[in-house]
Specification:
The chain has three helices and eight strands, in the order ααβββββαβββ. The protein is α+β, with helices and mostly antiparallel strands and 158 residues long. The protein has one domain: Kinesin.
Length: 158
Amino acid sequence: MTFGENCDNEELYQATVRPLLRKMATQIGTSATVFAYGQTGSGKTHTISSFYVAVSHDIFEIAAALNARVSVRFFEVYGGKAFDLLAGGTHCLVQESAKGEVCIVGLTDCNASSPETVEGLIDVGLQSRKTGSTSANAQSSRSSSHSLCTEACPQASP
């Protein structure tokens, strides 16, 4: 898909992210990654950040239909290391399981009861990101395209 300069974040979300959520809700074992790539200062962080609220609301709709719990984990990869953004940037270990799955050991997993709870956790995580200056920006997130926020562990509630 290609989007022109007049495409707003809501239109982009509806066309790209929402269909991924619906697919993940109907196909067990499906996962998706939303990745923004572009020049420094082009709006990647702004665009991705605008998706968090909409995803939070959509995830709770899906979780209710599946009787699933919602939890949030948020980390960044910086300098080849993983840092837990919900624990003030605490270093975590990245390991591979016997099944070949990547595991972030020691990562905080916060249960969330509402979209507003998720939004609050995201705010906490965003405040813990590492930032620095670049030739293009005085205050640039050095990890925004390398931070990962995961929601909705599809585990049925007891």
